[in-house]
Each structure stands twice: as structure tokens, then as C-alpha cells.
Design goal:
This protein is an all-alpha fold. The longest helix has 42 residues. It is elongated.
Length: 177
């Protein structure tokens, strides 16, 4: 792909729209993940104080923290992928250069996308099946736990698409030879 074509792709409306969506989504997902973490901490601190100093535990604290933890975990996977924070064995990728490394990166991102699609699909199915069941303390739909798999899987796919676009851009801007 020549430089003119590459610049035309970057300036296309679809590419710009995707990047805008991705930036907004990153802020929303980051806010949700951060909010889950802060909420979990505050709830547990309050639970400890009430339980040990006042002998008045919150009956719902563990249930809410479990739900928040599930959402933090599955939404956080996309953020971890964006920041390169997932555990990886990088001996082979570090040994490769040029086109072989590019092909391996695309293959790995494809596998991540496939796994994420699987997670999202089955998360939706499980959420639907579990929606009628209720949690013991707050009587929330149990499907809320499984919706985290759906949204986490979908956000991971968005992140994979973003990284695939970046991989294509970086490979096309590399000197050929």
C-alpha cells in the first residue's frame, strides 16, 4: 500500500468514526472499571468497620462486590490488551522481524478476536438463561453476572480491531526491502 492510499484510509470517515468511538469507549470502560475498583474498596472498608466495631454487617456487601469484581475483570481485559498488560510468552515474537513478525501478530490478534467472540456469544446465552434466577441477598437477576462476559468480549473485539488497524499501519509505514 503506498503512502497516498494509506493517508486516504486514515482520513476516511469510517476510520475517523471508529477512532472517535474507540476514544469515547476507552473513557467509559476505564471509568466503569475504576468505579468498580473504588466501589469494591469502599464497600469492603465499610463492611469491615460495621462488622467488627458495631456487630452490624451489611448483608449485601459480598454479593455486590462479587458482581463488581466480575464486571471489573471482564471489562478490564480490553484495557489490559490495549496497554500490553496480558501475560505473554514473547520469545518467538521477539526473535522474528519484518513480515514473519507481522503475520504472527495478526494471527495472535485473530485468535484473541475468536476467543472474545466466543466469550461474548456464550455470555449472552448464559445471561438470557440466568436472567430469571435471582441473587440471594438483593434479588438481582443472575444474568447481570453473565452480561459482563458479553460486554467484555465485545470490548475486547473492538480493541483487537484497533490493534489490527495499528498493525497494518505500522507494517505499511515500515521500509520495504
Amino acid at each position: 500500500m503506498d503512502i497516498q492510499h494509506q493517508n486516504a484510509v486514515r482520513s476516511s470517515t469510517g476510520y475517523q468514526l471508529f477512532n472517535s468511538f474507540k476514544k469515547v469507549g476507552d473513557h467509559i470502560v476505564g471509568g466503569i472499571v475504576g468505579g468498580c475498583l473504588v466501589s469494591m474498596s469502599v464497600i469492603m472498608i465499610i463492611q469491615i468497620i460495621l462488622r467488627y466495631f458495631f456487630q452490624y454487617p451489611l448483608f449485601w456487601a459480598e454479593e455486590v462486590n462479587r458482581l463488581l469484581f466480575v464486571w471489573l475483570t471482564y471489562l478490564g481485559t480490553g484495557l489490559a490488551l490495549k496497554r500490553g498488560m496480558h501475560m505473554a510468552i514473547d520469545i518467538v515474537p521477539n526473535m522474528l522481524m519484518g513480515l514473519p513478525r507481522h503475520v504472527l501478530n495478526i494471527l495472535l490478534l485473530g485468535l484473541i478476536a475468536l476467543f472474545s467472540a466466543f466469550t461474548a456469544f456464550y455470555g449472552a446465552l448464559m445471561a438470557e438463561k440466568a436472567w430469571a434466577m435471582r441473587t440471594p441477598a438483593l434479588q438481582l437477576p443472575r444474568g447481570l453476572f453473565y452480561l459482563a462476559l458479553l460486554f467484555g468480549g465485545l470490548w475486547m473485539i473492538v480493541e483487537v480491531i484497533s490493534q489490527l488497524l495499528e498493525e497494518m499501519r505500522s507494517n505499511n509505514s515500515a521500509p520495504q526491502g
